Amino acid sequence: MRNPEVILENLAKQSTKVEYQFQRLYRNLFNEQFYIMAYGRIAHKTGNLTKGVDNETIDGFSVKQIHHLIELMKMEEYQPTPVRRVYIPKKNGKKRPLGIPSFKDKLVQEVIRMILEAIYESQFSKYSHGFRPNKSCHTALSQIQTNFIGTKWFIEGDICSFFDNINHQIMINLLRKRIQDERFIRLVWKFLRSGYLEEWKYHKTYSGTPQGGIISPLLSNIYLHELDTYMEEYRRKFNKGEKRKTNPEYHRYASKASKRKQKLKNLDMSDGERNVLLQEIKEFKSKMHELPSKLAFDETFKRISYTRYADDCAPRRRTYATIFVA
């Protein structure tokens, strides 16, 4: 059996080739070492002792069970169990649904997640910060702090119930852009359609990603990568001009202050004349501090930037034309 770290490294290398199509991914689900690696990555996480629909937890999970999973995978008979839905209280007094998958489904999902992350991570936008290695809400805020200087308009977006409304067919079609392995695609489809149990009543899932699923955040990033790509292209078309024009009024006071400074170099000047010039320079600088050095509305210069964290996005328009872009 090949080392899963080597396999993931090779996938990541191939991912830099934009037109590359990934094949024979499903066979990695036959590799015992992948499950052991996945186990090591999720074993320490809270919730693994919480029972799913099958009443099993991480406690007592064995290599024998991994072998059974592999046999099911080889025959394509593996079927994810529905997640168990419970409701937990929110700070505002309301409750939000929480999906609890079985541990074997978590393990399989972690293997899928590692494979998908190796394929897609290098392709994601630098403006995407949610659910990614070395990215967080802090890196999103840092990007805003750096890039949003001079902002006049902010447009904040929040996709309502995004994880519940992902279109399954669109999701699969997006995966097929890079993955030519229908067995692997069918496995992801099974998770998307696995449904949930609420008060022991089964509900089908016609949209959304698996509740509480390990693959859900990554699938959401693959889905929203289309938005990131669109915004980057829109930004390139929208941006105009190299730099803003200087504010004429600011320039006028700066010029006057500069001329007064030149006069101060005259050694034959009396103390009274020198004091007058110093006072004028002080007044001009005071005026300059009250004015922007660049034109606030410059029709020859406009900029738009964009930052996304999960399903929250903040396009920001730093444009100095009179057009509002929504």
UniProtKB/TrEMBL annotation:
Residues 69-326 form the Reverse transcriptase domain. Pfam families: RVT_1 (PF00078). It comes from the Bacteria. InterPro entries: DNA/RNA_pol_sf, GrpII_Intron_Splice-Mob/Def, RT_dom. PANTHER family: NUCLEAR INTRON MATURASE 1, MITOCHONDRIAL-RELATED, PROTEIN YKFC. This is Group II intron-encoded protein LtrA. It comes from Clostridium puniceum.
